[in-house]
Amino acid sequence: MRHRIVIALGALLWLTTGTGCATDSGHAHDCPDCDNATELLVGDKCVPIDQVAACGPDGHAHGDECHCYSGQAPTDIGGTEYCLQADCAHGHEVDYDARACTEGSAAGEPVTAVASVDDVDSAHADMGKPVAVTLPADTESYVHFEATETGEYAIYLDADGVFGAALDEGGSELAAHDMGANADCAVEFPAVWHAEVPATGEVVIRFAAGSVDTVKIIIYHIEEDGHEH
What we know:
Strand order of the largest sheet: 9-10-17-12-15-14
Helix content: under 10%
Radius of gyration: 18 Å
CATH architecture of the largest domain: Sandwich
Number of helices: 1
Largest sheet: 6 strands, mixed
Order of helices and strands: EEEEEEEEHEEEEEEEEE
Distance between the termini: 7 Å
CATH class of the largest domain: Mainly Beta
Number of strands: 17
Structural class: mainly beta
Shape: elongated
Oligomer: single chain
């Protein structure tokens, strides 16, 4: 199972050296200039290199070897090999499973889930970054994120059986689909859910009551064109 989207074809800027992000003037307006020493381009942002797993952000490890999605040779930075992203996701696949494995390797921003949905405004999870959610014992709990676009949202969780439902601002359940484990790193993310969000605004994640103390999540908005289930 893969959670991918094929971005509309644009001019593909290939890496010709082991340094530098997209520097072509045609990409300057939407692609930051990462230094590939202390930070790497991930999606359309420069991410601190200590938050990028080996072989990321445009590949993953097969045993001790890096497999780069674009076919490039891995680049050694400080004794660790990385598959550098060529540009801001124009002209090549963005693999959300692989991205979650890479970006989700960080400890996560701490957030405490609330036991009442009425208090959920105080429990906010940022999108596109790992969030370590502390859960109350033996009771349902809630956090929210802001959906700035309609469509499908992928929710990666590092514990199975924890996701309860996704709710809209009025408390009604949204359609949600169990996608199984992340095929690229099933141990790290054994549960992936996709929620269909028909309107922008607050989306509430309800966690099931259980004995898990903390769950790490990471949330992405999945574009529709070319998306594979």
